[in-house]
Amino acid sequence: MRLEAITWDRLGDLLSERLLELRAADGGPWLRVAFDGAPAARPGDLAERVAEALRVRGRPSLVVGTDGFWRPASLRLEHGHRDVDSYYEGWYDTGALWREVFGPLEPGGSGRVLPDLRDPVTDRSTRSGYVELPPGGVLLLHGPFLLRHWFPFDLSVHLLLSPGALRRRTPEQEQWTLPAFERYERETDPAETADVLIRADDPRRPAWRG
């Protein structure tokens, strides 16, 4: 694949400018954008960068991380703390994401999005209030495995790490998750599925295709 060297600042600007011109596929007033990638690729950092670039341009947005939508530990860890299949298939409450994040942004929806549901550290409800995203606003959702759920994204961005980079940048206590990302690559092929591809092996020198 041919990728072009770029800076993170320039990426934020280019993606925000693309979103200013984009129209929702369902004709609704909100855009929904995926920043898909392993935690080691830090997709949330890029989502925040794009949010800031949109703010400067007068466009409202809301950054939401899927780690705020983990299922309760009693369900998530039913098969053990390091079960790869559970991590891949069952840690994230996709039903809550559909109900609390995507549903309100459908045509005719309220625009009132729940930014998080459960604290991933304490396993307790965050009790966060709903945030109203005004018409014309942009949802910037970040997390792993986003492109396997048929979420209605208007633009998808995948942050790609080579197997070696993924291994180096994943903390030792999380190395057990690596087979889940291998499975994701094999089953979903996010590098080809995503609208925008960013290689982030060297966090100082990204490259992209978009």
In brief:
It contains 8 helices and 9 strands.
Describe the structure in your own words.
This protein has 210 residues and is of the alpha/beta class. Helices cover 33% and strands 17% of the residues. The chain is built from 8 helices and 9 strands. Strand 8 (196-199) and strand 9 (207-209) form a beta hairpin. Helix 4 (84-90) packs across helix 7. The chain is globular, with a radius of gyration of 17 Å. 37% of the residues are buried.
What would the principal axes of the Cα set say about the shape?
A: globular
Largest sheet: 7 strands, mixed
* Uncertain residue segments: none
- Distance between the amino and carboxyl termini: 12 Å
| Structure class | alpha/beta
**How many helices?**
8
Give the helix proportion (percent range): 25-40%
Average predicted local confidence, pLDDT: 96
Strand content: 15-25%
Please state the CA-atom Rg, rounded to the nearest Å.
Answer: 17 Å
Sequence of secondary-structure elements = EHEHEHHHEEEEHHHEE
Order of strands side by side in the largest beta sheet?
1-9-8-7-2-6-3
- Count the E strands: 9
Organism: Streptomyces composti
GO molecular function: kinase activity
InterPro entries: P-loop_NTPase
Region (Disordered): 189-210
Topology:
Layout: E1 4-5, H1 8-21, E2 31-36, H2 43-56, E3 61-65, H3 73-76, H4 84-90, H5 94-102, E4 112-113, E5 131-132, E6 138-143, E7 155-160, H6 163-169, H7 178-188, H8 190-193, E8 196-199, E9 207-209
Parallel strand pairs: 2-6, 2-7, 3-6, 7-8
Antiparallel strand pairs: 1-9, 4-5, 8-9
Attribute tags:
33% helix; 17% strand; seven-stranded mixed beta sheet; 9 strands; globular; alpha/beta; 210 residues; 8 helices; two-stranded antiparallel sheet
